[in-house]
Amino acid sequence: MSEERDRPDDAPPTEQRVRLDRRQELIAHELRDSMQALRRELKPDTKEYKQALGEVMRQHQRRTKALQDWDHANADLTAHLESFGHGSVPRSDLVAHAGELHLLMSRMKTALRAAHRSLQDDLLERWKVLIRNVMAYRHALIDALPLIQSENPQLAVQGWINIALLDAAADLDDAQPLSPVVLFVSNDDAYGPVRQALDDALEAFGLAPVTVSPRIEGSVWQVLTAAFKRQVEPDRIDQAGDAFTAGAKARWYGEPQSQITKAQGEAVANLLDKLQTTPDALIMISNILIVKVDGVPVVRELTPEQVQVLQENPSLFTDPRLALSRLEPRQVEASRPGPDTGQQSIAR
User: Fold this and answer.
1) Model pLDDT for residues 214-237, shown as the tens digit of each residue
2) Could you give the CA distance from residue 202 to residue 211 in angstroms, rounded to a whole number?
3) C-alpha count within 13 angstroms, C-beta hemisphere, residue 199
4) Cβ contacts of residue 234 below 8 Å, gap of 6+?
5) Which residue of 28, 44, 71, 118 sits 20 to 30 Å from the alpha carbon of 315, by its own alpha carbon?
6) Is the domain of 206 the same as that of 147?
């Protein structure tokens, strides 16, 4: 039972209750200010006034919902961190918990950006405290990954992916958002040329590696966290829900889109060329997914919904066929027949 339910009616309010009441007062005050400004600018009972009033109320509802979403995600995130702090998270569950943490943080970041302006400073301070605790969890997972890798390489890959997603979710810098990058090739000999082509592709996408995981053998996996180098105006990112999605939008700004598209197309073609010597592969750059199954390559520019599927299921990054079947069930059947002929089979 919660502290609020246990408290007698005549007991003094808790700090949490006082904070909640204060936030509700600020929300109500901001709504009154918006409506007063509207009355000064437009005559009541006019069509324009009613339309503007409707938008004010819809914005108020969106911001109120954002605060509710923050509270719910914050409660879940705090519970996860408390269980970790009490030492009740076994090593085998650290990876799964990290996946849940980055999803909760993404929800909270969306809520933070959509919250009432009068509340953002308070939420930002609370966000900073949470980030410190999340980073402690991150370091514990990194320390555990070598042993996890010795027992289960694919679970270690998921761990590194979740670390990259944690870093992206924790980052509030819209000018240079972080974006996880994943590399898998089934043929060890293909790693060197493919990794060089990946570095060239990162440059074409305006990305610079920030962190790089160790190579994980058993085929070869590697996970990078990269930052967008171009400066982007935050309002042009449309307050995207997480850095992964923000990065997918941000990469189009900074120079004419036709120039970026040409450079990226050449970089993807180079990657496909270097992948000819491996029957199976998976590469994720921003929202571009390159999958090769049984020698047949497919390139997709993912929708935000497809990106979310991968974020919520990091095990998909360890299995190209499964990833393709989850994103596009019909495409995996088309990819079954035929060896690699050296042709770049790019489905768009």
Assistant:
1) 999 878 889 988 887 654 333 333
2) 13
3) 7
4) 174, 175
5) 71
6) no
Please check whether residues 141 and 221 belong to one and the same domain. Answer: no
Name the CA radius of gyration of the chain, rounded: 24
How far is 30 from 7, CA to CA, in rounded Å?
30
Rounded-to-integer distance, Cα 203 and Cα 267, Å: 9
206 Cβ contact list (under 8 Å, min separation 6): 228, 229, 230, 251, 254, 260
Looking at 121, 151, 181, the residue that finishes a domain is 151
49-73 tens-digit pLDDT: 888 888 878 877 777 777 777 787 7
Residue-number span of the structural domain to which 313 is assigned? 173-348
- Does 156 reside within a domain? no
Q: Are residues 139 and 192 in the same domain?
A: no
Q: Rounded to two decimals, what is the model's pTM?
A: 0.71
How many CB atoms sit inside 10 A of residue 71's CB?
Answer: 14
Query: Cβ distance 194 to 155 under 8 Å?
Result: no
How many Å apart are CA 310 and CA 299, to the nearest integer? 15
